[in-house]
Amino acid sequence: MLTGIIILVGLATGLSALLVIVARLLGGSNSSAADAIENLLPRIQCAQCGYPGCRPYAEAIASNSADINRCPPGGAETIRALAELLGRDPMPLDDSLGQASMQKSALIEESICIGCNRCAEVCPVDAIAGVPQRMHTIITSHCTGCELCLPPCPVDCISMVSRSA
Amino acid sequence: MAAERADQNVMAPPHSSPKPAVPVIMRRVLYALAPAAICQTWFFGYGLIINFVFCALAAMLAEAAVLKLRNRPIRDTLTDGSALLTGALLAFAIPPLTPWWVPATGGVCAIVLAKQLYGGLGKNLFNPAMVGYAILLLSFPVEMTQWMPPRMGDIDFTHLGFLSQLGYSVSGILPAELSLDAMTRATPLDLVKEGLRSAQTFSEVRANSLFGDFGGRGWEWVGNFLILGGLYLLYAGIIRWHIPVAVLAGLLIPSALLHLFDADGFASPGFNLFSGATLLGAFFIATDPVSAAATVLGRLIYGVGIGFLTFAIRTWGGYPDGIAFAVLLMNAAVPLIDRYTRPRVFGHD
Amino acid sequence: MLKFTPKRRLTGGVRLPANKTESTGKSIRRGLIPPRLIVSTRQQRGPAAKPIVEIGQGVLRGETIARAEKSDGTDVHAPTSGKIIAIENYESPLLSKVALELCIVIETDGADLAIQKRGPIEFAATREDRIRQIASAGIVGLGGAAYSTAEKMRGEPQIDCKLLIINGAECEPYISCDDMLMRESPEQILDGAAILQQLVGAPECIIAIERDKPQAIDAITLAADKLDLDGLRIAELPSIYPSGGERQLVEVLAGVEVPSEKYPSDFGFLCQNVGTAYAVHRFFRDGEPLSSRVVTVTGAAVAEPRNVEAMIGTPIADLIDACGGYSREAARLIHGGSMMGFELSEDSLAVTKATNCVVAAAPDEVKSENREWPCIRCGECSMVCPARLQPQDLVIAARESNAQALTELALSECIECGCCDVVCPSHIPLTQEFRKAKPLVQSLEELQAFSDASDQRFRLHEERRQDATIAAERQRDHIKRALSHEERRAEEIRAAVQRARQRKSETDGS
Predict the structure, then answer these.
(1) Each residue of C305-347: pLDDT tens digit?
(2) What is the signed CA dihedral for B155, B160, B165, B167, rounded to 10 degrees?
(3) pLDDT over threshold 60, residue B291
(4) Which of B206, C22, C392, C505 is the most buried (most CB within 10 A)?
């Protein structure tokens, strides 16, 4: 009986070690995992996940330091896609985060705009057109709904409106 | 279970009536089994019918109970005929001379464990009849091997009347002067396995009076009717040729090759074809659409897998017949097979 | 006439009971002038035409009553002479549904006077101009999908058309208008085909006809021999539905699979219905714009099913009256054939250029309940799918609204032919579910494209920011260096002045 126990324990340890080694060798770098994850994210850089952009969030997921349910604009579809890619369980969206959504776009009330250009500076996709000291406007087809332009505006002239179908 | 869906528009195209529905198909499969059932009753006694009744009854009662627990409509499901069909196939797989609780347990296990626990019709991963059979074989090895010889003039066969058969089934008591030992006999597959193991040649084993031209006597006749039933199913479009052909090829090609190589050491393909559950399996069991692969290539792989595993179990394994385990093993592989044998979509690379 | 052997067999498909002999026993009924015509200004897939007539105005046959506003539109013409009595919205059947469209109502006068003694129309000088002539003739595809023929011929300008396919397959049950047109006007069809072939510069032309139309095949063959056309061949196809689909014809005749996001013209193929070829002939040879078409009026609820050459705008009730009226209560009125036709709620709706067939179906001709059983994974649906899809997996994804799985299973390739429905033993309404689910896939693809574009813009933004940062740093360095240079200079000057002062005080002191 002793021999049996030794053999089985030995087999279990040996095979597990083999699995770990192979996983490390074939697992691929963390960055290629991050690439694949980033591709499933909306990539609008809204930072509502708590990370300063989609790439840092992707890397956090890849290194297992972030949950997959932190992307409001991605919503349930993104969570489902990430779950399938990573073999994790899907979970409901963390609703303590923001409300950014690609179904909305920003709207500048041009009569209030003072041309300070702070919104254009923070827009990650250059969707705001305007010359300093002149009226600014949103390029709606480029706007991703990330809401990053709302805080910097000193006269609070930007609001989010839903995209008409 | 048939259901009316509120979100479906009956006026949407296509407007023509679809082909006959599921209950009609199940019924037709039962018709296809009927000639073989009559033949088997003729040669081996009324046990088949009695087992069918107990099995189907238990299956349907169990199904009704589970549906009640699941809060699903009972009548729609019971009338789709699938429990009846499972009962019929299981009855074929059980020896005629068994107490009533053998087919009953088989029916309950098949329906509850293999079908309803997975979600009901269409959702089961494993073939319910084969799951029932496997559980029976492993739990009641003695009762599941009490096979009888065929009613042929020159064979020492004891004919039990319907009432005596029923009496045994219900009470477990045989009429006086009869004993199980005297009535039961090893099956041809048993004999081949034993014989080849104990260094007899195949031809020597075949010399036994239980053997006919190909397989066992009586069983060959059942096989003929099963082939007829299978051909009817093919003609009626209820099954397609891929699975039966693949199963038979997977079983008979290795058998033929090895038998050619060593005729004494291996059973002939003709024997393999007409013995055991080969024909039942190829036409009626492996073709169960729910647990089989769905794609064309997938079905060929699935069928060949079943045939070859059966051959392997028969030749080198511990059981005389391997169809049930072969089917269950390939059932487990079906999701993988389906996923990787999807054909190239039109217009895509 | 040379026969063309198809390169491939059709993928999937089902053989269906044709239900066509009921309507092919008599010749095409012609000369039907209903008291009122309700002519929709949208007769094609695309923009509607703008009415150029006024209420009270008299019009003659062939007169343009609505003009296309853009180059992808087609004109609409008065089918007969009469007076305009209304221009308002009516329900009109086009494009797989009934929709409210602006319609011009003409009260006919029965005289059927044409706008002038029209004769052959001269071909315009350039290819683009000739294509515009076709649009001004109001010609759209008469196979039922109503694409502007001119728009289709424009296609991909960089890709030469190498094969013109004339579609006489007519594979869908009940429809027999193309069959009758081929039997009765084969020379006109072939002449129209020759004109089209010349217009697009296609070296080859194949007319495809299903084998169950022997009279049509004979008529076309005879006509081809008489007209002595070369470059034209006839392909006889097995009667399998849906052989007559455009992409299916390209697959069978040329062995090329055109994916759903592309068009046959991207691969050098142009497919036109026989009715469209006939309309082209009528316009260029007789000067008649497209204002009527052959419509099959059939179904067990019609007393004398037959084909009718109907003016566009003829109320369907008038069509049925012309065929002996209803023989019994129709369970359903179908616009189109039994596989892809859509239901009409009333027969007051009027014929459009997309109306190839009207089926007044008796109760036993159509499915009557939506009872369904669970899918038993029999796989028949995937075996008959012309696009080689897996409907059994698609329907699960569709019912779960799983856009990801639907995209992976290529739902956008579904041509909604209905083959899967008719073979399903569980009576699951597969085609309906797929039709409902297609927008999900489209929005997923659009979202993906938007994310990719946003990603691209973000990268460019970051690059610019990097460049700006680098430029700013360089600027700072430059200023720093300049400042320190200035300082050094100032130091040197101070030191020199200091030295000079010192020397001076030294020379002064001594």
Answers:
(1) 999 999 999 999 999 999 999 999 999 999 999 999 999 999 9
(2) -140
(3) yes
(4) C392
DSSP for C348-377, please give it: TSB--TT--EEEEE-GGGS----EE-----
**CB contact set of C177 (below 8 Å; sequence gap of 6+):** C170, C275, C293, C294, C295, C296, C307, C356, C357
Residue among C173, C373, C431 whose CB faces B2 most closely: C373
Instruction: Identify the CATH class of A2-86.
Output: mainly alpha
- Non-local (6+) Cβ contacts of B315 within 8 A are B258, B266, B267
Determine the number of helices (DSSP H) and then strands (DSSP E) in chain A: 5, 4
Judge: C458–A127 Cβ closer than 8 Å, yes or no. Answer: no
Q: Which helix or strand (DSSP H or E) is residue C65 part of?
A: strand C64-67
- Compute the CA torsion angle B261, B265, B268, B273 (nearest 10 deg): -120
Q: Which pLDDT does position C117 carry in this prediction?
A: 67
CA distance C340 to C95: 11
Q: Report chain B residues whose CB lies below 8 A from the CB of C10.
A: none
- Structure token pair of residue C127: 């290819």
Query: For residues C111 and B183, what is the distance between their CA atoms, to the nearest angstrom?
Result: 98
Which residues contact residue A11 at a Cβ distance below 8 angstroms, ignoring those fewer than 6 apart? none
Sequence ranges of chain A with CATH classification 1.10.15.40: 2-86
Candidate from C371, C389, C422 with C-beta closest to B4:
C371
**Is there a contact between B342 and C389 (Cβ–Cβ < 8 Å)?**
no
Q: Which CATH architecture has domain A103-165?
A: 2-Layer Sandwich (3.30)
How is residue C320 written in tokens? 């049925």
Query: Which residue in C has a C-alpha nearest to residue A165's C-alpha?
Result: C443
CATH code 3.40.50.11540 region(s) in chain C? 2-335
Q: What is the DSSP string of C89-101?
A: EEEEEETTEEEEE
Give the one of B20, B21, B346 whose C-beta lies nearest to C257's C-beta: B346
> Which residues, at least 6 apart from A147, have a Cβ–Cβ distance to it below 8 Å?
A46, A48, A98, A99, A100, A106, A160
Identify the CATH number of the domain defined by range C372-510.
Answer: 1.10.1060
Domain span including residue B157: 19-184
**Largest interatomic CA distance in chain B:** 74
Residue A34 DSSP class: H
pLDDT tier at C166, thresholds 50, 70, 90? very high
* Contact check, Cβ <8 Å, C367/B4: no
CA distance A124 to A118: 12
User: How distant, in Å, are the alpha carbons of A39, A43, C137, C169 from that of C449?
Assistant: 11, 11, 39, 38
pLDDT tens, B229-283? 999 999 999 999 999 999 999 999 999 999 999 888 888 898 899 988 899 999 9
Residue B291 inside a domain? The answer is no
Asked if A77's CB is within 8 angstroms of C444's CB, the reply is: yes
Interface ipTM: 0.89
| Terminal alpha carbon distance of chain C | 130
Q: Which of A100-104, B128-132, B241-245 has the lowest mean pLDDT?
A: A100-104
- Cα separation, C107 vs C90, in Å, equals 16
Residue of chain B minimizing CA distance to C373: B2
User: How many structural domains are present in chain B?
Assistant: 1
Judge: C377–B10 Cβ closer than 8 Å, yes or no: no
Q: In the structure, what pLDDT confidence band is assigned to residue A91 with cuts at 50, 70 and 90? A: confident
- Residues C351-376 have a mean pLDDT of 91
CATH superfamily of the domain spanning C2-335:
NADH-ubiquinone oxidoreductase 51kDa subunit (3.40.50.11540)
From the number of C-beta atoms within 10 Å of its C-beta (0-12, 13-18, 19+), residue A27 rates as exposed
Confidence grade of residue A28 (pLDDT, cut at 50, 70, 90) = low
Residues of C in contact with A81 (CB under 8 A): 404
